[in-house]
C-alpha cells in the first residue's frame, strides 16, 4: 500500500514565480493552486499538507501550524500589488470594498485604519477597482496580479527612463476618474520601519514536509532568482506589463524569511492577533 502523497497548495501569484515556476516536485508530492483564502482553507481543513498561506492565518493558527524557517513573501517598502484604490483622501473614506481572495491584506488594512483612527464601512465585493469605484465605493482593496495590473493602469505608462513611479501613486482610471493608490506595505513601512511578511510556507506541526520537497524548493528559488530577467519577461507577457516593471516588482520581494522579516511578522502578529500562540518555524536549513 503506497503512502499517501504529501499534498502542496500553492498561491501561484506572479510574486511567487521565482520560487514555484521551476519547482520540480519530488516523487510522492502533489500540488494544486488557488487564491489565498482558498489555500488558507485547504491547509486548515487538511485538504493540503503545506501551503504558502496568508501570514495572518499562520498567526491565528500558530498553535497547530509551523512555517518553513527560510521562505517568505515579504517586502521592505512598497509591494505594488496590495493596493487600496481610492477617490477621496484616506481620512474621508466611508465605504471600502474588500476582495474575498485575501486574508492578509484585509487584516493589514484593519491594523492601518486603526492606527490612522479611521473606521469606514468594510464590505466584501469582487471586481476591478475601477468598476467598484464607479459603483459608489470610496475605496477598493485589491491584491495579487490583478492589483498590479490595475495599479499600472492608474500610474502608467512609465517614461522610457523611469523604472518605477515615485510614491504616492496617483493618476486617472480609464474612465477618467482621479484615483490614488495607497500601497499597504509602504504604509506599514512608514508606521514601523520594518518589512511586511505577506505569506509564509506553513504546515501542520504533526505533518512537516519531506526534506526532499524543501530542498527542491530551495533549488527552484535559487534558479528563479538567478534568472529573474527570464522570469520577469515570461510573466510580463502574461500580465501585459513592461518587463522592467515586472522585474523590479519581483526583485523587490524578500523570499528568505530573514530576521527583519520575522521582526515585521511578530510586530504585525502582536497588533493584529493579540494573545496569539508562539510562532514556530521548522529546523533551519541543514538542521535536523
Ligand atoms: C504580495 C501579495 O501577497 C499575497 C497576499 C496574500 C493575502 O493578501 O492573503 C497572501 C499571499 C501573498 O502572496 C499579493 O497578493 O500581491
TrEMBL record:
Keywords: Lyase, Menaquinone biosynthesis
Superkingdom assignment: Bacteria
CDD domains per the UniProt record, alphabetical: PBP2_Sco4506 (cd13634)
A UniProt-annotated Pfam family: VitK2_biosynth
Enzyme Commission number(s): 4.2.1.151
Catalyzed reactions per annotation: chorismate = 3-[(1-carboxyvinyl)-oxy]benzoate + H2O
Pathway: Quinol/quinone metabolism; menaquinone biosynthesis
SUPFAM superfamilies, per database record: Periplasmic binding protein-like II
Similarity annotation: Belongs to the MqnA/MqnD family. MqnA subfamily.
General function of this protein: Catalyzes the dehydration of chorismate into 3-[(1-carboxyvinyl)oxy]benzoate, a step in the biosynthesis of menaquinone (MK, vitamin K2).
Protein name: Chorismate dehydratase
Gene source species: Deinococcus taklimakanensis
Organism phylogeny: Bacteria, Thermotogati, Deinococcota, Deinococci, Deinococcales
Amino acid at each position: 500500500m503506497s503512502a499517501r502523497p504529501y499534498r502542496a497548495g500553492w498561491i501561484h501569484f506572479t510574486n511567487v514565480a521565482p520560487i514555484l515556476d521551476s519547482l520540480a516536485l519530488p516523487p510522492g508530492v502533489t500540488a494544486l493552486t488557488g487564491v489565498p483564502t482558498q489555500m488558507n482553507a485547504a491547509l486548515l481543513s487538511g485538504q493540503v499538507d503545506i501551503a504558502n498561506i496568508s501570514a495572518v492565518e499562520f498567526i491565528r493558527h500558530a498553535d497547530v501550524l509551523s512555517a518553513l524557517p527560510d521562505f517568505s513573501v515579504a517586502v521592505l517598502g512598497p509591494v505594488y500589488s496590495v493596493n487600496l484604490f481610492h477617490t477621496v483622501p484616506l481620512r474621508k473614506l466611508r465605504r471600502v470594498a474588500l476582495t474575498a481572495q485575501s486574508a492578509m491584506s484585509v487584516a493589514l488594512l484593519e491594523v492601518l485604519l486603526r492606527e490612522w483612527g479611521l473606521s469606514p464601512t468594510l464590505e466584501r465585493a469582487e471586481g476591478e477597482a475601477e468598476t467598484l469605484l464607479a459603483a459608489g465605493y470610496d475605496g477598493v482593496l485589491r491584491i495579487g496580479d490583478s492589483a498590479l495590473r490595475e495599479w499600472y493602469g492608474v500610474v502608467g505608462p512609465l517614461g522610457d527612463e523611469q523604472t518605477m513611479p515615485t510614491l504616492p501613486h496617483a493618476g486617472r482610471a480609464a474612465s477618467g476618474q482621479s484615483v490614488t493608490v495607497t500601497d499597504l506595505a509602504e504604509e506599514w513601512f512608514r508606521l514601523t520601519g520594518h518589512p511586511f511578511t505577506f505569506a509564509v510556507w506553513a504546515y501542520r506541526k504533526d505533518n512537516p514536509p519531506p526534506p526532499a520537497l524543501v530542498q527542491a524548493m530551495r533549488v527552484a528559488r535559487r534558479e528563479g532568482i538567478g534568472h529573474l530577467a527570464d522570469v520577469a519577461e515570461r510573466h510580463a507577457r502574461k500580465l501585459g506589463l513592461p518587463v522592467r516593471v515586472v522585474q523590479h516588482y519581483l526583485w523587490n520581494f524578500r523570499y528568505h524569511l530573514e530576521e527583519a522579516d520575522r521582526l515585521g511578522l511578530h510586530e504585525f502578529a502582536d497588533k493584529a492577533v493579540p494573545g496569539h500562540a508562539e510562532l514556530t518555524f521548522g529546523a533551519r536549513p541543514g538542521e535536523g
